[in-house]
Design goal:
Elements: E1 2-10, E2 13-22, E3 28-32, H1 39-47, E4 54-58, E5 63-66, H2 78-104, H3 110-124, H4 129-139, H5 156-170, E6 174-178, H6 186-197, E7 203-206, H7 210-216, E8 219-222, E9 240-242, H8 246-285, H9 298-327, E10 355-362, E11 366-373, E12 378-383, H10 389-397, E13 406-409, E14 415-418, H11 431-439, H12 441-446, H13 469-481, E15 487-491, H14 499-510, E16 515-519, H15 523-528, E17 532-536, E18 541-543
Parallel strand pairs: 3-7, 3-8, 5-6, 6-7, 11-18, 12-16, 12-17, 14-15, 15-16
Antiparallel strand pairs: 1-2, 1-4, 8-9, 10-11, 10-13
Helix pairs in contact: 2-3, 2-5, 4-5, 8-9, 11-13
Domain ABC transporter: 1-250, 349-546
InterPro entries: AAA+_ATPase, ABC_transporter-like_ATP-bd, ABC_transporter-like_CS, ABCF, P-loop_NTPase
GO molecular function, one term: ATP binding
């Protein structure tokens, strides 16, 4: 898979400029970069869904693409989706059978046709399709989904895992994956990791999953326009290609940023010194001595000599200034940095639980025997796909009804829920408009959206429908943080968020002045978690402290 000089603009906004890199067969290249850097756009171009404004792409004929947000279908069933995904594999098996028949009949052109059909069939592993179907569905946690259900009726997570199952079963020559681990539990991530490590063709995937990048990527392509080797001034051209793992790249990038900042400071200091030389040399070197009677000619003589020396020194300094200004590095662009939790939280007071749950049941989905969320609670909720993690957050937030039991919430309690799937009532509205409408003009001006470090200045007035999924989730996070809740519920908070923001958010939540409950599959986050943890089992049962 080869990209040469690929560029793409949307109106006056440049997303990709002169992107070039190669993904060899058997290699797994991870795309990284800030939200909105162009990862999904680049995958769509490679898949042939969108056209670039410039540049060329060479890739295998059979390319499979996993979308970050799998489209809903009002008429397709789960069984129909899986059948469509495997139709091409079955067609390869029929082609091979037809070619074999032609060869047996003595067709003189059948030998070449049979060899090509056999090669395609072997690459697609057509003979193991039936056996692989059950293995893949079970590993991805969707084996029990009714095949007659409409795809539009299953959850977003199930839809994504079914699409991934269909993609893996179709065995394309090359894989394009957009955030493939967003809806996967540990078992499913391990299965996908093993599948990709054993894949013969090129794999290009965009991911914010730090542990997955470390385990799977054989190389990285950083689309962050703030820094690239081909464009050290940060104008957005080219990419940074790194032949190693994610953790190693973090160290390399940090060291490079440090060198860049140090070189900029040194060049600025040298420029100041040279400019001072130009402005101060004349006065410092002029003849100021006292003439004696027999030195009536020495003044003019020394004066001329000094003037020549001044001119020479100033000329040298000016030439060095001109050369340095022509080649100096620009100041490193200030990255979009999360500003943390705004002040003005407002404590609810007291040490009693903010939310108390006893023997609550959400039929068919969750059973909570005992759970208390206190003002200082730090709770991580884990469990397999479909165990009920999102349902538990919705129960605490009061957005799902229970059948029996008791859910008590403190009076005046403010609860904020960052959901997995973000939607806005008016997709044509800008982040600034959405923010001001939700908070009111007075609070929006007191805590400006731009000041939270979640939305770039260039995106504040773009329609939210034109933002990436990660950028939209940043807007949703801003709406919650601008009015910090007493209980902050986060459903897979690191999904779709850039690597830098995910880390900053985790650090900020550690010092959050209220209760924090997180449901997450993110292994990187879980390794760093210092608070309480509960695991929801397959039966959807929750008992705190177990």
């Amino acid at each position: 898979m080869r990209l040469d000089g690929v560029s793409r603009r949307f109106g006056d906004r440049r997303v990709l400029t002169d992107v070039s890199f190669v993904v060899p067969p058997g290699s797994r290249t991870g795309l990284i970069g800030e939200n909105g850097a162009g990862k999904s756009t680049l995958l769509r171009i490679v898949a042939g869904v969108d056209d670039p404004d410039g540049g060329t792409i060479a890739s295998p004929r059979r390319i499979g693409m996993l979308w970050q947000e799998v489209p809903r279908s009002a008429s397709t069933t789960v069984g129909g989706l899986l059948d469509a995904a495997t139709d091409e594999v079955r067609a390869l098996e029929r082609d091979l059978s037809d070619a074999a028949d032609a060869l047996a009949d003595g067709d003189p052109s059948a030998a070449e046709r049979y060899a090509a059909a056999l090669d395609a069939a072997e690459r697609a592993d057509v003979w193991s399709l039936a056996a692989r179907l059950d293995v893949v569905l079970d590993a991805l946690g969707v084996a029990d989904v009714d095949r007659s259900r409409l795809v539009s009726d299953v959850s977003g997570g199930q839809r994504s895992r079914l699409a991934l199952a269909g993609l893996l079963l179709s065995r394309p020559d090359a894989l394009l994956l957009d955030e493939p681990t967003n809806h996967l539990d540990d078992v499913a991530v391990a299965f996908l990791r093993d599948e990709l490590v054993g894949w013969n063709g090129p794999v290009l995937f965009a991911s914010h999953d730090r542990a997955f990048l470390d385990e799977v990527a054989t190389g990285l392509v950083d689309l962050d326009p703030a820094r690239t080797p081909s464009d050290p001034r940060g104008t957005g051209a080219g990419v940074a290609v790194f032949g190693g793992g994610f953790s190693d790249y973090l160290a390399v990038k940090a060291a490079e940023r440090d060198r860049w900042e140090r070189r900029f400071r040194e060049e600025e200091q040298r420029l100041r010194e040279l400019r001072e030389t130009v402005s101060g040399t004349g006065e410092s070197l002029r003849f100021t001595g006292v003439r004696r009677d027999n030195d009536k000619y020495i003044g003019p003589f020394k004066g001329a000599k000094v003037e020549a020396q001044i001119s020479r020194r100033i000329g040298n300094a000016e030439r060095r200034i001109e050369d340095l200004e022509a080649h100096r590095v620009e100041a490193p662009p200030t990255p979009l940095a999360f500003a943390g939790i705004p002040a003005g939280f407002g404590s609810i007071g007291g040490g009693e639980p903010l939310v108390s749950v006893r023997d609550a049941v959400v039929p068919g989905r969750l059973r909570v025997e005992r759970l208390d969320v206190k003002p200082d609670t730090r709770l991580l909720v884990t469990g397999a796909n479909g165990a009920g993690k999102s349902t538990l957050l919705a129960l605490l937030a009061g957005t799902v009804a229970t059948d029996g039991g008791r859910v008590a919430r403190r009076k005046g309690l403010r609860i904020g829920l960052l959901e997995q799937d973000v939607s806005f009532a008016d997709p044509s509205a800008s982040p600034r408009t959405v923010y001001e409408k939700a908070l009111g003009e007075e609070r929006a001006s007191r805590i400006p959206l731009a000041g939270l470090g979640l939305v770039n200045a260039t995106d504040l007035d773009r329609p939210v429908s034109q933002l990436s999924v990660g950028q939209q989730r940043r807007v949703a996070l801003a709406l919650i943080l601008a009015r910090p809740p007493h209980v902050f519920l986060l459903d897979e908070p690191t999904n779709h968020l850039s690597l830098a923001l995910a880390t900053d958010l985790e650090d900020a939540l550690g010092a959050y002045p209220g209760a924090v409950v997180i449901a997450s599959h993110d292994r990187w986050l879980r390794r760093r978690w210092a608070g309480e943890e509960i695991v929801i089992n397959r039966g959807g049962s929750v008992v705190q402290g177990v």
